[in-house]
Design goal:
- The chain is α/β, with parallel strands linked by helices.
- The chain has 3 domains: about 220 residues, NADH-ubiquinone oxidoreductase 51kDa subunit (Rossmann fold); about 80 residues, Ubiquitin-like (UB roll), CATH 3.10.20; about 100 residues, NADH-ubiquinone oxidoreductase 51kDa subunit, iron-sulphur binding domain (de novo design (two linked rop proteins)), CATH 1.20.1440.
- It is about 45% helix and about 10% strand.
- It is built from 18 helices and 9 strands.
- The protein has a 5-stranded mixed β-sheet with strand order 6-5-9-7-8, sandwiched between helices. It has a 4-stranded parallel β-sheet with strand order 3-2-1-4, with helices on both faces.
- The longest helix is centred in the C-terminal third of the chain and has 27 residues.
- The structure holds flavin mononucleotide and iron/sulfur cluster (SF4).
- Flavin mononucleotide binds next to strand 4 and helix 17.
- The site of flavin mononucleotide has 24 residues, from strand 4 and helix 17.
Length: about 450
């Protein structure tokens, strides 16, 4: 299946980053239509589109918007999660840099649907260019009455602010993000059912809708062309509609962002990215480094869809798709992945704080040639103590890749433990990980 560039159609056109250029390509038609509808009709259109959150969990967007109380005795907030910390994912960065008005228009539509007067875009601190592009677009939108008081004469007031984070993966978790935005430490809060949903008590204990950059960017197209139009894309899948941007990286000839319809296979996505570089496909991590990896055979036929990828043994996640070639040492790859999660653990709860560190220690011992019989079982046991027992999903995210890799490439772990060196001993593998023990080659 070819690319279906709904969001990325104009990314190569610098004029699209200006208000005039955006309007010339049909920009703000979605907001104009939304302003002519009442709040519920906008939500119904989003419902008809089948849009699910593009930040990782795939939660239906309309349910969040609909969950904001109808009374406005308290302020309501629209919040955009632009932290994008999941390794392998760089689509939100591109959307903000090249299609900033799409994101801003989407948030303004959400403001109308949720009766919010204030919005925030929480942008990862390192994304300086993205923050500049968004800020410049916000300024232009204010100057032309697309933001601020009485937008386009509709009576809608909406102020939008940019907030830069400091580059913490945990601050992408929605409750930690809100804590960080409010000036507290970037640690997560208690979740539903132990605490109210953000739609009831989010920022400053007020109703807050939080969505990913890509989720908001879909809203203008849906309101302009209709929910039914959007829902035709991906209709072959069980319950995934529209398009999804995949950030493709790893050993491919043309890494980059590719927007495809749900229903496309990972094999077709690989083809779009120019195929494998430097060797045959060995494994694929389709949805960002936290999701379980798939072997080559499963990858090629795996259908991109929220339910379909789970059936194949992985997840859509954030869409950070990493293809690995035959020279990749899976043990080393997983050790490096685990190191990231251990470093990013916020330390609030014991299973994640201690468990992620133990994973790194055990994997490092294996990687350095000192693995012992029983180490695989030890890794599995640590993961089972983290997964589902941590305060937030970072713990799960740290456990899944390890369990997934052992499931698919157990032989590589066994070989490393028994022989004190990697099973993958090609010159290319040595080049990839120079510090690895490849002494038998
Ligand atoms: C540790 C952790 C990091 C996360 N990082 C991000 C992120 O960078 N961007 C994002 O949109 N969602 C991230 N999420 C998911 C958010 O908590 C939340 O589900 C999402 O922003 C909701 O938006 P959506 O419904 O539009 O997907 C993260 C979750 C966890 C547990
Ligand atoms: S799982 Fe626990 S320690 Fe890990 S990031 Fe979440 S709250 Fe912090």
């Amino acid at each position: 299946m070819p690319e279906r560039r709904l969001l990325l159609e104009h990314t190569n056109d610098p004029a699209y980053r200006t208000l005039d250029g955006y309007l010339a390509k049909g920009g703000y038609q979605g907001l104009k239509k939304a302003l002519g509808l009442d709040r519920q009709a906008v939500i119904d259109e989003i419902k008809a589109s089948g849009l699910r959150g593009r930040g990782g969990a795939g939660f239906p967007t309309w349910i969040k918007w609909n969950g904001i109380p109808k009374d406005t005795s308290k302020p309501h907030y629209v919040l955009c999660n632009a932290d994008e910390g999941e390794p392998g994912t760089f689509k939100d960065k591109e959307l903000m840099e090249n299609t900033p008005f799409l994101v801003i228009e989407g948030m303004t539509i959400a403001a109308h649907a949720t009766q919010s007067k204030v919005g925030y875009i929480y942008i990862r601190g390192e994304f300086v260019d993205a923050a500049r592009a968004i800020k410049s677009a916000i300024d232009e939108a204010y100057a032309n009455n697309y933001l601020g008081k009485n937008i386009l004469g509709s009576g809608l007031d909406f102020d939008l602010y940019v907030h830069l984070g400091a580059g913490s993966y945990e601050c992408g978790e929605e409750s930690a993000l809100m804590s960080s935005l409010m000036g507290e430490r970037g640690m997560p809060r208690l979740k539903f059912p132990h605490a109210p949903l953000p739609t009831i008590a989010g920022l400053w204990d007020c109703p807050t809708v939080i969505n990913n950059v890509e989720s908001y960017a879909c809203a203008p197209l849906i309101l302009d062309k209709g929910g039914a139009w959007y829902a035709q894309f991906g209709a072959s899948t069980k319950n995934s509609r529209g398009t999804k941007i995949f950030s493709v990286s790893g050993h491919v000839n043309r890494p980059g962002n590719y927007e495809v319809e749900f229903g496309t296979t990972l094999g077709e996505l690989l083809e779009l990215a120019g195929g494998m570089k430097g060797g045959a496909l060995k494994a694929c991590v389709p949805g960002g480094s936290s999701v379980p990896m798939l072997d080559a055979k499963t990858t090629m036929d795996a259908v991109i869809g929220y339910e379909e990828l789970v059936e194949a043994g992985s997840m859509v996640g954030s869409g950070g798709c990493i293809f690995l070639n035959e020279h990749t040492c899976i043990v080393t790859f997983i050790w490096r992945t685990s190191l990231f999660y251990a470093k990013e653990s916020c330390g609030k709860c014991t299973p994640c704080r201690e468990g992620t560190d133990w994973l790194v220690k055990a994997l490092n011992r294996i990687r350095e040639g000192g693995g012992k019989p029983g180490d695989i079982e030890l890794l599995e046991e640590i993961c089972s103590q983290i997964d589902g027992r941590s305060f937030c999903a970072l713990g799960d995210a740290a456990a899944w890749p390890v369990v997934g890799a052992i499931k698919v490439f157990r032989d590589e772990f066994e070989y490393f433990i028994q022989n004190g060196r990697s099973k993958v001993a090609t010159p290319q593998a040595r080049e990839m990980w120079p510090e690895q023990p490849f002494s038998h080659a």
